[in-house]
Amino acid sequence: MQIRTFRLSDYLNVNQLLAEVLTETCYNETNSALARQLSWDSELVLVAEEEESILGVIIGTIDNNNGYYYRLAVDSQHRRKGIGKKLIQTMEKRFRQRDVNSILIAVDEHGEPQELSVFDAVGYFERFLPIGRRVLSIANVN
Predict the structure, then answer these.
(1) Is the distance from CB of 52 to CB of 41 less than 8 angstroms?
(2) Strand locations in the chain (E)
(3) N or C: which end of the chain has fewer CB within 10 A?
(4) What are the backbone angles phi and psi of residue 47, rounded to the nearest 5°?
(5) Is 4's pLDDT higher than 60?
(6) Which helix (H) or strand (E) holds 93?
(7) Which segments of 16-89 are extended strands (E)?
(8) What is the CATH number of the domain that holds 62?
């Protein structure tokens, strides 16, 4: 498996993955955010690929010099194989290369427990976010 930057040729496969693993409302919001991020900075959209199949995607963004994990999605047949962890760790390296002030997890009403548990497994926090909390600072870079 390899983690790499999103390519335009990935668009249909990534959209299919997102449609399969996200609720319809979450998919629509994520699809819009994906398009925006690709127009701003495609280096912060990463895919996990194996044998030309897209197994996962992570969308990051930088706002006010803070790096945000926006959405993580892994094909349901390939979960619990370290794909999400690898995507998170590779995105963290990208954020650190950009010298961001902080790295944060954006959490919205679509945040699935399994998505948050991957961040927990990477060691970013010890318990789930309190209900209603929108972001969690996971690293002070400076």
Answers:
(1) no
(2) 2-5, 45-50, 53-63, 66-74, 102-106, 135-140
(3) C
(4) -125, 150
(5) yes
(6) helix 83-97
(7) 45-50, 53-63, 66-74
(8) 3.40.630.30
Residue 13 identity (one-letter amino acid): N
Instruction: Name residue, tokens 């009403």.
Output: 109
Question: Tens digit of pLDDT for each residue in 59-87?
Answer: 999 999 999 988 999 998 998 899 999 99
> What pLDDT is attached to residue 18?
94
Chain-centre distance of CA 36, in angstroms?
14
Total number of domains in the chain: 1
pTM: 0.81
Average pLDDT over residues 90-115: 79
Q: Do residues 10 and 47 make contact, with C-beta atoms less than 8 angstroms apart?
A: yes
* Closest residue by Cα to residue 10 from 40, 49, 37, 62: 49
Q: Which domain holds residue 66?
A: 2-140
